[in-house]
Design a protein that fits this description.
single chain, about 525 residues, alpha/beta, Polyamine Oxidase, Chain A, domain 2, 3 domains, seven-stranded mixed β-sheet, five-stranded parallel β-sheet, 20 helices, about 35% helix
Length: about 525
């Protein structure tokens, strides 16, 4: 009897998770087709002369037990055997690096580190807590007049919220007040998306920061005072933006996906790189095969019983041999994506430091959100603070300077030298670095990094209705579903697609509900135990 096969487009978190789940839970053979030569998609790690770049920063944190345990089966937590956190999260069998348990990460590479989270906003050439807290420090930095305006504005929004909440601007105002929104959210958010917040759907806020507000931030601070710091990695009662620690692979997120890819191949799966999906061959409402090309133009056809796509919706909709209806293509062609540039800067030191009892030390932030409107850069990543092993020489500081743009923008087409000069100049301008301290640099460009919630997104249901009629085709992951999913959400869509194949379920509504009804999925409970 011929073994059933699943053709998977894309070797990012969702594609590789689907392949791994199929191999460990079914008799279906996965064949993964990746257009680049790297594993992990935007969750890859780029190694530049021993200095590693995490594209965008990927905290390994999820409120799903299923995802947390999946990660720790692949890369065990680096901790001592008498650590209660380690005991709790090492109860599952570890398939790789069993000797890593209880060892220093220097002695075992295949491990997760438990890292403290700290992010701040840089505004008025000063640091503010993120999420913003109305602490004494914040109020002093803002000044009396601005603080009064923020307070009055927040009370007004709390008592008389906007009745309509259709745009992201309305979403922010209802939770923070118009003044606080304008001070700490508007500039950065519009850098990310390139359009005013009143043109972005409120759905983005509902997915990314649905539980965050002034009130939730204050309650979190009070719980810390009365309960003290916690050792629970899951932090299930904590809004995602308020978590205080997270897991992180020793050598960055790509280490996770390179390990998963290696296991897939060892278990009999196949992975092809430099392989671009071109044409889906269908028979009625079933997909039968996928035609691909490589860099030299060679064509190859892969036949399969199931098909998973993590490719951008816009691309996959144009690949059907039988074109979708005109209205569906109209929606697909009107979807918008934001692209991403990271400039890696290696420096001897920063001009900004943390004052400690031992003197000045490197600031502890993972991310710094740049709210200053007079520069284009949006966010600053300090890779030393994600993992000390991301930096070849710990005496140096390794930064990622992040720019959000469109491929049609002038900045996307700047030469690497001009891009480095822009990043160096802007960081110098706002007082974070001295340009003379720069030792080396690298530039990375990632297209279609962020699926946008404007353009024709409000008509996306027309695409979903059409594609869901193909019984053996599953759209999963961030770009596959045109949804701004985190890594764990993308993985869950893959896991649940495999659940549906095993159970014979044809309704795909559960997949589309991931990251919109997460509490619902967690309350189901049994799946965490059965498949963790």
């Amino acid at each position: 009897m011929t073994q059933r096969r699943a053709i998977i487009i894309g070797a990012g978190p969702s594609g590789l998770t689907a392949a791994y789940e199929l191999l460990t839970r079914t008799g279906i053979k996965p064949i993964v087709l990746e257009k680049s030569t790297c594993m992990g998609g935007i969750s890859r790690t780029v190694n530049y002369k021993g200095n590693r770049i995490d594209i965008g920063g990927h905290r390994f944190f999820s409120k799903s037990n299923r995802v947390m345990e999946w990660w720790l089966q692949v890369l065990p937590l680096q901790a001592s055997e008498d650590d209660p956190v380690a005991i709790k999260y090492h109860r599952m069998e570890r398939e790789s690096a069993p000797s890593a348990f209880g060892h220093d990460p220097d002695a075992a590479d295949s491990v997760m580190l438990l890292r403290p989270r700290k992010s701040r906003i840089y505004y008025l050439r000063r640091f503010f807590d993120y999420p913003i807290s109305l602490s004494k420090d914040t109020l002093l930095k803002l000044g009396l007049w601005r603080t009064l305006k923020i307070g009055v504005s927040y009370v007004r929004s709390a008592l008389f919220p906007l009745k309509q909440e259709e745009t992201l601007e309305q979403f922010f105002i209802n939770r923070f007040g118009r003044e606080l929104y304008g001070t700490f959210f508007k500039s950065y958010t519009e850098k990310v998306w390139g359009v005013p917040c009143n043109r972005i759907s409120a759905e983005w806020g509902a997915q990314r920061i649905k539980g965050l507000s002034v009130w939730s931030t204050l309650m979190h601070a009070l719980r810390k005072v009365f309960k003290g710091g916690g050792g629970d990695i899951c932090q299930k009662g904590t809004e995602t933006s308020l978590i205080e620690q997270f897991l992180y692979p020793k050598f960055g997120p790509g280490q996770m996906w390179e390990e998963v890819a290696s296991r897939i191949i060892k278990m009999g799966g196949e992975i092809y790189t430099d392989c671009r999906a071109e044409r889906l061959i269908t028979d009625g409402w079933q997909v039968k095969a996928l035609e691909t090309t490589n860099a030299t133009g060679d064509r190859k056809t892969f036949e399969g019983d199931y098909f998973f796509s993590t490719a951008p919706v816009q691309e996959i909709m144009r690949s059907f041999d039988v074109a979708p209806p005109k209205n569906v293509l109209e929606v697909s062609d009107g979807l918008v994506y934001r692209d991403f540039i990271t400039v890696g800067l290696l420096l001897r030191s920063l001009k900004i430091n943390d004052e400690t009892s031992q003197g000045k030390q490197l600031i502890r932030d993972n991310w710094i959100y740049i709210q200053e409107p007079d520069v284009q850069l949006g966010r600053l990543t300090i890779f030393n603070n994600w993992s000390p092993f991301m930096v070849a020489d710990p005496a140096n500081v390794w930064l990622g300077i992040e720019y959000f743009c469109n491929e049609s923008d002038e900045i996307w087409n700047l030469s690497d030298d001009r891009m480095v000069a822009l990043a160096t100049g802007e960081l110098s301008k706002i007082g974070i670095i001295d340009a003379d301290e720069v030792l080396d640099s690298a530039v990375l460009r990632m297209e279609k990094t962020y699926p946008a919630y404007f353009g024709t997104y409000d008509r996306f249901a027309e695409i979903r209705e059409h594609v869901d009629r193909y019984g053996n085709l599953f759209l999963i992951g961030r770009n596959g579903m045109h949804r701004y999913n985190n890594q764990d959400h993308s993985m869950l869509t893959a896991m649940m697609a495999v659940d549906d194949i095993i159970s014979g379920k044809t309704d795909k509504s559960d997949l589309w509900a991931v990251n919109t009804e997460m509490d619902y999925h967690e309350k189901k409970g049994k799946s965490d135990v059965q498949h963790g």
